[in-house]
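Filed under: proteins

Residues; backbone shape codes:
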Amino acid sequence: MIQRPALLRLLDEVGTVDAVGVEERAAKFATRSIKRESKRFGLRLAASMVDLTTLEGKDTPGKVASLCRKALRAHDTVEVPPVAAVCVYPTMVRAAVGALAGSSVRVASVATAFPSGQAPIKSRLAEVKAAVADGADEIDMVIQRGAFLAGDLVRVRDEIERVRDACGEATLKVILETGELETYDNIRAASFLAMRVLRPGDFIKTSTGKTSANATLANHQVMIEAIRDHYLASGTEIAMKPAGGIRNAKEALHFLVAVKETLGDAWLNNRRYRFGASSLLNDLVRQLVKQETGAYQAPWNFTENAGGY
């Protein structure tokens, strides 16, 4: 029988979270004043960190190719860097690889029975291996939240380890689904559980973007503080990806301020930080146009990213 004391022992090792304190810190990041040149830099940086995503049952190779064109060139007149990656279902990996050939944009694929994680481990591993064989550079996996909450930490850890091995050279992003973990303490514990088997450059990620509760400054703060503490203890540099609910440039800049003040400039690049928020790219471009021209463009002048986070 699974015993929750395993979770309590992990929390005793890594420490609990002062919920009031973390929410106060998170709220302060939204009050920082960012001047014109720093804002322009931050907008371009955020654009370069986006995982441009389509995860719909009606996805087609043509739709993926269109998304890849936007990933490479988001606007015709304003300088916008290519995004970090295009994220698709495993069946669309080949289409994305073909459309992005020769570019710096990576191909990411959700796997392991995304978004529920409720499938036998054998089929989840097969899905990962198939995506990597088709050319995926990155794999976004989901943990078994039910197993974690039941205290079966050995199972969760071992499954992350097996997925990591199935990835080969591909980067692994471990989705905690923070909205289902119930407490900040659980988010911190799950972060450490994952980080202890991840490689330098692998990610922990807040959410699938498929639930009602996604990335917030507070749960993000819990996770980046865990990354900081793990790095100070082990020297292992784990990357971070908030996903879901970050839809405008102002919010993205708040998240970047949190990263700068908690982890430092070494994490302000798309090797160590991503946004899983495809609809965010349109507003970043819109704000960059405003910086260049002094006038806002209408939202409908920018293409939508149906199926994104």
User: Anything to note?
Assistant: The domain at 5-301 is CATH 3.20.20.70 (TIM Barrel). The first strand starts at residue 51 and ends at 53.
